Description:
The protein is mainly α. The chain has one domain: Growth Hormone, Chain: A. The protein has helices spanning 2-10, 19-53, 62-91, 93-111, 117-145, 151-176, 183-190, 197-204, 209-226, 233-239, 242-248, 253-272, 277-287, 292-321, 323-343, 348-363, 368-372, 382-391, 394-397, 399-411, 415-422, 424-431.
Amino acid sequence: MSQVKTTEDDKAWYREVSAKQWNTLLATNLGWLFDGFENYALILTAGPALRQLLEPSQYPQIPVYIGTIIGINLLGWGIGGIFGGVMADYIGRKRMMLMAIVAYSLMTGFSALAFSWWSFAILRFLVGVAVGSEWATGSSMMAEIWPDRARGKGAGLMQCGLGVGFFIASLAWLFIEPLGPSSWRYMYLIGVLPALLTLWIRRSMPESELWKKANELRLAAQDRKRHGDDLSQSERQLTKFTLTDLFTDPTVRGRTIVIFLMSLTTTVGFWSISTWVPQFIGSIAAANKLPAAQWATYAAMAYTAGSIIGYASLGFLADYFGRKAVTLAFFIIALCLTPLLFFGTTDLTLLLVLAFLSGGFASGQYSWMPVWIPELYPTRMRATALAFAFNAPRLIAFLGPIFAGTMIATFGGFGKAAMVLSSIYVLGIAVTPFLPETKGKPLPE
């Protein structure tokens, strides 16, 4: 008996993963990759787009407009993400993912047709609504299909699709930006391509069996309720609306609040600080009489390369050291890196190294969500919980880029704004210990 157990424990984790599970990883990774491309395209192109959409007299306020556009995009992401996650619990993971990918592909293409800053803002809001719907669906699918022992690794590999999308966007912009004032429009036209991914997903990606089982139980309980039958406690839970159940079910209410605060930390840290890294390094290059756009692109590529490693590494480290210790470490290191990046040096090579490290810990920390959150909620509300955790903070965090843009314009630089906003990491460090450790445990059904 002990010999059998030893053999199972020593078995390489990837040998436990079936072809169906690898297909699920590929589909969710690609969906998130295109999300990453689309969102980083906004970060890279917002400045050039606004130079074409604004009057020259408004150019000094471009940081304010950039912050506003990013904030509006983030607000749409929050609204759409919560809606998409709830729908994924009711209509299925696969169906909701297909709908989200088609929607954000079309909205991204329409962004290329913007004719004013406010039309650009409206289109970016709609893109955000569609993009937000995809992540919780894919994260739920991965958690429910991959084996317990490899779940953290799978979630990290899925999440690194975002960083790959960031990197591809940076690389594409390096070649597209020189094409002229309308080059930003070409970037958004490329964003239509993910719609083709849905043709493969429909054939190759299975629906979650855990969701099918939970949905059958939900429908049966709802039918019994309509007929006036007496329901058990578990049946009554199944008939509740999943979003309100996050706060009325005493077994998950406390952890929902903690997760919200942790997610707020990660979201504000990324969107209010990290998104300005390319422009910050570009401004240092300009001060040294070097091409700002080119160095901003180098910075974006360094940052996104670090993100890819960070996303994947957190999942592997969490499966080895535990969810809690690794998430705490990422928060602490991201906090320490902020002053080093914005005040530590003006050497461009060293700044690229710091951008790489910042990407690994400030952006890479996002992986704690698909790794840890699915293990804290039952199947009936898992996608809703993921969607709320990932997207509800955006309903507050969308103000961060707006404040950051205003502070940058007021202070005449990036550093002070970054230091003020980096204090958010203290919140994450304070609340993370209150979540239970779930390393290696099966998903709650």
